[in-house]
Design brief:
Elements (H helix, E strand, L loop, with lengths): L11 H4 L22 H5 L4 H15 L3 H11 L3 E5 L4 H4 L20 H18 L6 H26 L4 E2 L11 E2 L1 H20 L19 H18 L3 H9 L11 H4 L4 E2 L21 E5 L1 H6 L10 E3 L5 E2 L7 E2 L1 E3 L9 E2 L3 H14 L3 H14 L11 H15 L7 H8 L10 E2 L4 E2 L14 H11 L2
Antiparallel strand pairs: 1-5, 2-3, 4-10, 6-9, 7-8, 11-12
Helix pairs in contact: 3-6, 6-7, 7-8, 7-9, 8-9, 9-10, 10-13, 13-14, 13-15, 14-15
Amino acid sequence: MKKIIIYKSTLLLALIVSISSCEVFEIDKVNNPNAADAAVVQSDATKSQIQGLVTGLESRHRGYVATTSRAFGSFGRETLSFRDSDPRFTQDWLGRALPPDAAFFAVGNTYNAPYQAIKQANFLIEAANNTANLTAAEIAGVEGFAKTIQGYQYLVPWLAQGSNGIRIDVSDPLNPGPRLDQAAALTAIRGILDEGNTALGNAGSSFAFSLTSGFAGFDTPATMRELNRAIAARAAMYAEDWAGVITALNSSFMDPVASQTTTTFAEGPMHSYAGPPDGFNPFFFPLDQFSTQLEVVHPVMIRDMLAGDARGSKFFERVNNPVTNQALVEYTATHQDGRWASNTSGVPFIRQEELVLMLAEAEAQTGGTAAAVAAIDAIRTVNGLAAYTGGTTNAELIDEILFQRRYSLWFEPMPHRWADLRRYDRLGDLEGDWESTTGAFIATDESIFTQLAIPQAEINWDNLQSGN
């Protein structure tokens, strides 16, 4: 079994719960009797120790998945999170606890987990650059992989925090950089991805480390570079740099639109799960079995789905065991997440289907009407629908693309639906809270979140630094 070395830190951005006056912070050593001391790894690490840090980064890379998907899925009315142990997973995430303040319920890992991965990547890069046991090309491979993961991870809090902005420079936990506004932070994230891309270009033909099966097909510098550009395309989309989206996609792992199939749509890297001593897929629940905790499909997804859409297979109907939740009086959920074959199924974090959708949007936004329609047609026909026959104005094409993104990217580990409606100023399209008297989810502006609040740990740190 590979040793997993996970960098541990009292990183203020991720782990401080409360701070009193003038506490002294220290970097903790790695508390793993089977792995090297942190100071040893930071100086002249062996290839085996670098491998442990890489595997640790892969582990950190999936830390955001469960919380982020469940919370953002609720915010975007893709899912409802039923937990008999605590109704707040349903009622607070539907907007009954207003506003989402610094101590908002159960969303800490939308912030903590990404920064833990980012810090792990920083530690890995530092270790690679402080050893004589790697060649220049091998060091470039480590940097390229680490910065590719960092670019992805920074986008998680960037999406969650919205206009609050985020910190980018967290290399020194006792002296972090300033919180950058949305635009500046996104520019910095794109720069990190570009740095990773350049490093991968200098990494030769193979890595000095191995990756899990989740990165099958993306486990060389050349193929990791294609993944890097796919993530860069997503970041360019958020920046509304439509030409940049197309340029990045052209260097990504996207196949030509005309050759897309169900198989190619599914292609992409995954967060892998292997069971003990590793973890399990956090979204797998036996189908149609009694459960006190379950992610159920929001009824509007079933209501708005087009007849014949093959993506409906994601929604498994619970014929024998419909489920209720004390937070939603007189509401019975009928469908659950039906995507997973087992509790060790990998969770994709970016797929070709998303790349085709990004291409459609970028072409629509730059006047490439024919190319946009061709990409839309690929999405529709591969998923069992007729070719697009709607209007071709910019607004009409964007309407269609957002609709297709809603079903293609349902409950995937980024806030796709919530973020899509926010970036097009359409959050008002979302249904609000459940109203038992009418038996429906009603539109209520106050129950729709635009962003999460700055975490309390961040506020505490800023107060400490300013002497408050």
